[in-house]
Q: What sequence folds into this?
């Protein structure tokens, strides 16, 4: 197993990979990115990830690589890594040029890919559930850097997670400036109430998570009711069940929020069912049986 890095057409190991210190991705976080995984060596929800990458780029007026260039880079980098299962990070920066905030000055965008062995969270988190802390760090307003843009400007999320870790929690949950529950530092949130699932609506000011969308599709196909709406902190603390989703974690149960135990302190029946259904989905990807 190995790590391979693609930088503007050159694939190397992690020690040899270089990019200019004048690249705006390094200087300003002026970049967009996606993270996904493979299952059976096949990429999971690649089309959805690339669609979101292109939308993120368009939202910040960033010139994006052509789809065929992206496709070749992904294929070549995964092949070079030769991992049974891979973590894949795709990054497009605005590139190098003069040190200025003016986005008209960069020379050309840079494409960087990182393929590494897939490392899953500890099994204990899926067996016993994770703990969340609803933190004071607010999610960025949609009037600032829109949370719908998956950008390399990540300090908001970093500070939120740091606050959660100080409280002894696994993951942070941030609220929007108006006090509605938004999302985790690297995850989307679902709660179960009265047999229905609720997840914060996109209008709250969140990233449209790829696994969030996939889980909504899977749940509705299984006749589980899912609402996209508003949640307040006490709605989460008082939930019957809760779980978070992300491309690497999949569906991870939550059994504690702040100082409140969720349900009976073990993953609930709806959560367990969705964990199983998502595992089946990954198996379908591995077999090439998905659309």
A:
């Amino acid at each position: 197993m190995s790590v391979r890095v693609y930088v503007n057409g050159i694939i190397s190991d992690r020690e040899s990979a270089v990019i200019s210190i004048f690249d705006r991705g390094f200087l300003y976080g002026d970049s967009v990115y996606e993270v996904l995984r493979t299952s059976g060596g096949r990429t999971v929800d690649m089309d959805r990830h690339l669609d979101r990458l292109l939308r993120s780029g368009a939202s910040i007026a960033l010139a994006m690589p052509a789809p065929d260039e992206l496709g070749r880079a992904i294929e070549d980098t995964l092949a070079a890594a030769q991992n049974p299962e891979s973590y894949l990070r795709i990054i497009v920066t605005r590139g190098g040029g003069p040190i200025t905030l003016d986005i008209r000055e960069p020379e050309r965008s840079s494409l960087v890919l990182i393929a590494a062995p897939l490392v899953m969270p500890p099994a204990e988190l899926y067996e016993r559930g994770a703990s969340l802390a609803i933190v004071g760090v607010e999610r960025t307003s949609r009037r600032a850097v829109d949370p719908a843009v998956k950008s390399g400007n990540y300090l908001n999320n970093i500070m939120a997670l740091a606050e959660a870790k100080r409280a002894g929690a696994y993951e942070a949950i941030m609220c929007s400036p108006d006090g509605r529950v938004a999302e985790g530092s690297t995850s989307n949130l679902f709660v179960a109430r009265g047999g229905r699932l609720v997840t914060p609506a996109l209008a709250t000011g969140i990233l449209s998570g790829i696994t969030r969308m996939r889980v909504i599709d899977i749940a509705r196909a299984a006749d589980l009711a899912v609402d996209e709406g508003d949640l307040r902190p006490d709605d989460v603390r008082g939930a019957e069940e809760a779980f978070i989703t992300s491309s690497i974690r999949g569906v991870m149960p939550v059994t504690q929020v702040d100082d409140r135990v969720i349900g009976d302190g073990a993953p609930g029946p709806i959560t367990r069912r969705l964990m199983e259904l998502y595992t089946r989905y990954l198996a379908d990807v591995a077999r090439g049986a998905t659309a």
Remarks:
- The chain has eight helices and 15 strands.
